Amino acid sequence: MDGLNHLTQARVQNLPSLPSQSSSITAGHYVIKHLEEEAVEAWDSQIQTKIWFKSPPLAQDTIRLINGVKLFAESHDQGFCGDDEQGNWTWLEIAILEKEQDTSPKKIGKEELSKESHMNSFCTKDYTWLGGRVFRMDEDFLSSLEEGNVIAVRLCAQYPSWEIYARKGHLVFDVGSGDGPWPIRPLPCNGFQVPRRRNVKEWFDKAKNPANEEAKELSLFIAAMQKFQSLPPTNQLSYFRIAGIHDYPRNVSWNMDKKPIPYHDDDDVRRKKPVKNEENGSYCEHNTTLFPTWHRCYLLLFERRVSDLMKEEVKNRGRDRDEKWVEAASRWRLPYWDWAANPQLPELVANERIKVIVSWDATTDKCETAEVNNPMYRFQMPGGLVMGDKSYGDYRIQTDGEGPWDVCIGTSRHAISLYSEQNLWVQGHTVSEKVNKAFEKTKMQGQTLKDAVYRLLGNDYIPQYKYFATTKFTDPSGPKGYLSLEAIHNTVHNCIGGNTPMGIGHMEAPAVAAFDPVFWLHHSNVDRLLYLWQQVNGSLWFHSSDGCDDESATTPLRPFRKYVGKHGFYNSDAVRKTSDLGYTYDDSDKITDGEGHVCDEFLRKRINELYGPDKDAFERPETDVDPVINIDYDRYALGGLQYTLFFFIGPVRRNVPYAQQESLAGSMYTFSSPLQRSSKREGDGDSTKSKYSSPATGCSNCNKQADAGVRSRAQVPLTRSIPREKRTTRAEAEKFLKEELSWVAVISRGSLRMPREVFGKGLELSLWIGTNKLPDDRTGKTVFEDYVDVKWDWKEAEL
């Protein structure tokens, strides 16, 4: 980029023209030339402008390659001025036009997208070669460029007798490679109110009717996802590569302008090879305070990528002049699945085929629909080979024994099993009934999940952001502080993917979870809960006194770049407000007044209606006994192997997986990945060395936490799982739980029980009994208080 400031006139005049096809563009400098002379004269105090020349309409694939733009031109003014101290009133501007035929700049709100490039030469009739400022695509108004927009050069003059003459205009583009750093630009609102991310059930129900505007959104979305998933792993903006940011393949970086770290036949060589932080992949922030904001950036990237492809699809269909299709592409935002209020796998992701509009006549308003393969049902590797096939080279998935992911072509849910005779899971398969049962069970697990979300969003239940954000253990300053957004998120991953011998799926493993298309609907809801918590808790955010210097509001959220440059990464402060990122949630329509301000009563009513007890409970509010289980655990206690704690109220049946027991009241899932032990034995050499390796393909965050002994926490509310008549008093609730409460820890995807002794001090359980008091209507606030630590024999309660 700095090269734009050092280009000589001779160099600029000999640059190649910007190719019309993005496929013909390689990294370097390109130019759009206009050699003819043009002039503008001012007559009064009004600014007089004229479009001098402009680029052709820019394709999205071209826009994403542009790092910066700079204008060079020869120009002069009228050659005289009455008073030098009055200043120079002629200049050149760079502007964005919506369409090629437009004569005035595009607007965002009331502001024209036009910026001064440089002032004209002053009081001379001699042409002077001048260069303007560099417009960075990431920092300036050029980030508002959209598919089909053009960049124009304007001549400007103001006040009587001021004139500008210009010739030999050269608009120079600094262009990067497709694998180079890629800034993520929030989607523009384009004159709309801030677009909403909508409930996927409501959105899809409307989209099934071709007469609704949502049907066009769905049609473009499905086509965009099909194209997205078909791109090869070598393409940094392919579905495979963007899903791979979450973890696998760990040897492939993203947005770092680095090639993959080569696989070797000798794994020990690969593991010992020292690498810099930005060279390997596996960026995901789990068990850290950055968990919510890192994933907010991740969704921003995914949403932007899909939106760009939707807009390309409009153009490919020849609908770029049809306002309804253009508006559908511009209005779309990623839907969310509210699994707490609607614990059923969304229809959008549950079926292999999906019906969409394939053609539409704007004149007659008639459309044709057809069933097509549904890219939201599963992701399948382009080329139809298993993910670990060596033909994918260093982009293949190599699991090192962590799971069957390298022998899958597609993603599955509750389907990968040694007991499967048809092996449908190789291509990718979903057993929807098992996903739904994992959420519902006897309604107890579902009610516990719903209750956990209710508490999470309650005033005063989570006193600080650091407790809300993550499972990472910091002194919770009270029994309520064990609940977190991340812990709830972990449980949902387990429910969707499946974690029993009869069927597992990609969502249960952090290494491959993002390959399942439902991941994005799930995390859109996780982000929505962050949004709602922010509305409830106003100013609560990161605390500089937390003692977590590597987890502050200004910590870079790698690999997500706001702009190109060493320090160009997003941070949590930059993504704090969703409206700054081009979206909000449909909840905003329910929680704001007529002027768009959040109203506390509306907000509490929304949360109480979605996640609170039945309406009748608010009509006869009573002080209720409120038991919760708090868990202090080491997620790396078993070398990073995932394990689950199941809690039951009632009998546990033999020969039924723990996750499918009718008496299951709640669970805690670590959502962790196996660590790799260092080849250096303890006691050999430097005692400060890590006992876990940090290989080229490893997760440095996990290794550091394991070495530091970082602990985690979670909470399982029991109140809605216990009959009301069995907890009228604390003593009665305690007596009931001594008779009915049991628990177990399991690993190996639900098949192997692990006695508590195996965990040593890596697992501490406690039972607390307090009270909760509902308000007398749904606009009030529930009060949770007076918790007492109950002495409990967890050994006796263990199965």
From TrEMBL:
User: Which parts of the sequence belong to the Tyrosinase copper-binding domain?
Assistant: 286-303, 516-527
Specify residue ranges for compositional bias: Polar residues. 690-704
Chain intervals with Basic and acidic residues compositional bias: 679-689
What does the UniProt keyword field contain?
A: Copper, Melanin biosynthesis, Metal-binding, Monooxygenase, Oxidoreductase
Q: What is its EC number?
A: 1.14.18.1
Q: Where is this region: Disordered?
A: 675-725
Protein's UniProt keywords contain Ion transport? no
Classify the source by domain of life: Eukaryota
The reaction(s) catalysed by this protein are: L-tyrosine + O2 = L-dopaquinone + H2O; 2 L-dopa + O2 = 2 L-dopaquinone + 2 H2O
Pfam families in alphabetical order: Tyrosinase, Tyrosinase_C
Gene3D superfamilies tied to this protein: 2.60.310.20, Di-copper center containing domain from catechol oxidase
Cofactor(s) recorded for this entry are: Cu(2+)
Q: Does Metal-binding appear among the keywords?
A: yes
Name the family: Belongs to the tyrosinase family.
Output the PANTHER family linked to this UniProt entry: SHKT DOMAIN-CONTAINING PROTEIN, TYROSINASE FAMILY MEMBER
Please state what the protein is called. Answer: tyrosinase
